[in-house]
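Internal tracking record. Fields below are filled automatically when a chain is submitted to the structure queue. Please do not edit lines marked as system-generated. If the sequence contains nonstandard residues, flag them in the REMARKS field before resubmitting.
Queue: standard
Priority: normal
Entity type: single polypeptide chain
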Amino acid sequence: LAQAHEMSDAGDTAAEAALALAEAAVTADAFGALQGGADNTARETVAYAERAVALARLTGDPVAESAALDALSGARCWAGESFGAAEAARRRIDVLARSPRTPAATHEVMDALAMAAGTALGVGELPQARRWSGQLASHPLLAEAGHQATSWRLVTDAFAGHADDVLARAVGFREAWERSGRQRSLSLGAAAASVAMIHGLRGDVEGRADWLALVEQADTAEQHRKGYGAVFDAIVRLHHGNPDAALASVAPSPDAVWKWVCWVWLHWYVTLRAEASVLARHPEAQSRVDSARTVVAGDALAAAQVERAQALLDEDVPRLLATRAAFQAAGCPYQAARTLLLAGGAHADRGRAALTSLGLDPITGRQEQRTEPPE
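SYSTEM-GENERATED OUTPUT FOLLOWS
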């Protein structure tokens, strides 16, 4: 970088923008590649990325601006600014809409769609994530790379609970991944894990084990699974009425696993941790519910999960049932059905019918309350 600074001409806007982006990526480690200094703070990373965006905008080059916004989205994730990360990712799509159709711009568009879908998931915007992941899945340049094309659509539909859609796309995903030489990346690992989750929600033990084995091959490193792996496993455990096992999956505080949960998975992680704590009668259940409420404020889907956890803790069935409308509005029929099951009684029958219509195993119910809280 020092040499590049010496060689660049003063007043060369494009060079200044490129160097600013390199500094954000390397010096400040905006993309989480562990290239920056150990004492670099998240706020400093955001400042580096914001400078890169400002300089890139001056170039008038949409591709350069999109690349800088990508760095800004990553930096905001590190800082715990999930909504800011999603906003920066959305801006990439808007910026690229005015770009000429060049190879570089096309590549940038595909990356922008993937990141927009992922960060939308991170703030509970399932309809938006479905739209952008759908555009990515139908992109003509990914016609022979179905694993890359459909990865975020699989994750989105799995969170919503659309089992039939997930299982149908999973076939092509796996075939394309195998043809590609079994590539490894975070998005591919998350997609495979989401399919495993659906098998788990269907009660298909063998199918789940098969896809979890695929995750071991599709992921880039074991530590990534501390994010999405914990989230998907907790959902399956809660579905089968085992909150203690679910709580074990999300036992570490978010700060302890920040590197792996701060991107797409943070809101999902803290809400599942709160719900599992309530159902397992953990002594810190109320404080975890309160903490989750603060983290997810503004995320309608996650806020409904926190509200439901509070209602469970207070044994307030009408308040619990009131969250169902929020899940439906957020495009998450699985959680809407789960709400009915947690309410029990006649509501549970409706919940079981709703799960069956989604292609899921309708065995979920309120875990029988234990007489003693866990240690």
